[in-house]
Amino acid sequence: MAERRGDINRRLLPWPLAVPAAVGVAFLLLPLIGLIVRAPWSALPSILTDRDVLAALRLSLISATIATGVSMAVGVPLAWALARVRVKGISALRALVTLPLVLPPVVGGVALLLALGRRGLVGQYLDQWFGITFPFTTAGVVLAETFVAMPFLIITVEGAFRSADRGLEEAATTLGASRLTVFRRVTLPLVAPSLVAGGVLCWARALGEFGATITFAGNFPGVTQTMPLKVYLALETNPDGAVALSLVLLAVSVLVLAGLRDRWLRPGTPL
Amino acid sequence: MTTLHIEAEVRREAFVLDVMLTLPPSQVLGVVGPNGAGKTTLLRAIAGLTPLTTGRLSLDETRLDDVAADLFTPTEQRPISYVFQDYRLFPHLSVLDNVAFGPRCRGVKRTTAQAIAKRWLDRFDLADLSDRRPQQLSGGQAQRVALARALAVDPEVLLLDEPLSALDAQTRPEVRAELQRHLADFAGICLFVTHDPLEALLIADHLLVLETGRVTQVGRTADVARRPSTPYVASLVGLNLYRGAVAGDDHVNLDNGTTLLAPSHGAAGPVLVTFRPSAVAVYVQPPTAGSPRNTWPAVVTSVELLQDRVRLGTEGAVFAYADITAAAVAELGIAPGVPVWVAVKSTEIDVYDAPTRRAPTRAREAGKNRARSRRG
Prior knowledge:
Chain A is mainly α and about 270 residues long. Chain A is built from 13 helices and no strands. Chain B has helices at about 40-45, 95-105, 110-125, 140-150, 170-185, 195-205, 220-225, 230-235, 325-330, 360-375, and strands at about 5-10, 15-25, 30, 55-60, 60-65, 70, 80-85, 155-160, 190-195, 205-210, 215-220, 240-245, 250-255, 260, 270-275, 280-285, 295-305, 310-315, 320-325, 340-345, 350-355. The longest helix of chain B has 16 residues, at about 360-375. The interface of A and B includes residues 172, 173 and 189 of A.
């Protein structure tokens, strides 16, 4: 049967695909709409200028940023090793390293406690010898966030290292570049888009981290109480405040996504 | 002034590359051979990108790779640069920084490296493109940038892997002429792999023929072109080539039983026999009286239009290519399947000693001796 020519380029999906897709969209968007509709818009300014809220927001942003920095410093070389080193057992190592991706964050927090807590495997010596303790400190927050978020960076960047053009690295070698120079001046710039994408993923995950943080670092206002913790607690005592804080986190996420969308996250962009 | 000694064997599954060769200073060696002959593998071994399985590579007294002595100079420490077939310019760097990359890596200060790069870009007439990214260059420009980048590190050995093959037919002659000019100025040793016989004949002063990993012929370009020793080289330079044995002062028995009348010029025993396709005359009727001493009936098997003539494949007493004019094709009604008579004047036939059959070790020796005599 003939169709209107004008429809050629905008034919719809067949309905068995279109219906579930529409359900998916609704499911993902509805909660966000709820958040926006029910937000206490008039009370917003006073809630958001509250000293505690600002402190939590500040703590969240700072610790997520530091966690991302730590993840970059440690995770990028690790990703390179996972992508390039040809040793038996490297794939097992990859699985272990990315385990926190699927591990319940609470379990991660407990594990951190057992390793780095005041009585932990390593933590007891850190405490005895250097007087360093992590639980109930901001450093503990950073550790918990790094533990949960770094794997996101690692898998993103590892994939990029894996698919980076080895020919260009060879070319650099023939021009006299040492392996470190090749990494610094060729490989790293080549994977820069993935570095940014992985960094953002990592940062966003760290910003929203809840389970590991509350388990390992506790919930002290100003020291370890990040935004997600504040939201959760506020929900019981001050629901309007919780909604307002959630709105702030949503805004931050949308801002990040919008900032990256054009440059890095376009569909089909090689990462 | 350096000499490159190659005594290389690289094994990869079923493939074996086996080359023994000495390259004297400032030689420009064309490496030719069919696909999969190991040409690129040879270059990669010299650059250190593919380690030898056995053997040695040395540049004067510097051992680049010595399997027996367990020594290996990493690629980045070899005074060798490489122009890849696909150029491999760094997409994230400007043209200037691409060329400055090598000097920078060899410990030159940033500003000095850029000055060096500028000089090379000037020499290659590329100064206007300094700030461009490689993606913004045409094929010919990218090729020149790649060559400039390779030369900017002042290498002792320059490796070119089919440097012109990615160019279209229009730009190729121009870039080839330029490449020729730059290689003439280049003091080091140059090996370049090519598929194009014309490129090999124009640019190389010596040719190395690789077939299935082994050297089948090596020598001065003119000698290889005039006296090919394998069917591959013969077809490369466009000659009819046969193996045979001298049977008297004026005739040669070919391996397939045919006898050709040809002056043997003192050659004896196993010989190779060549004549040019243009030395072959084609008749549609048996030639009755004429000077050509060798005539035989044949059937046209292929007709191919070359630039200014038509090349016929003819199958008769032997398979022979014959070049005739397009007008002759039309007038004589020649087409595949048409029976013809083929004639070759005996004075057009070149007869020369066949190189010894290539048992691996003998082929190595032959290569070595030729290389030695070239140096003198």
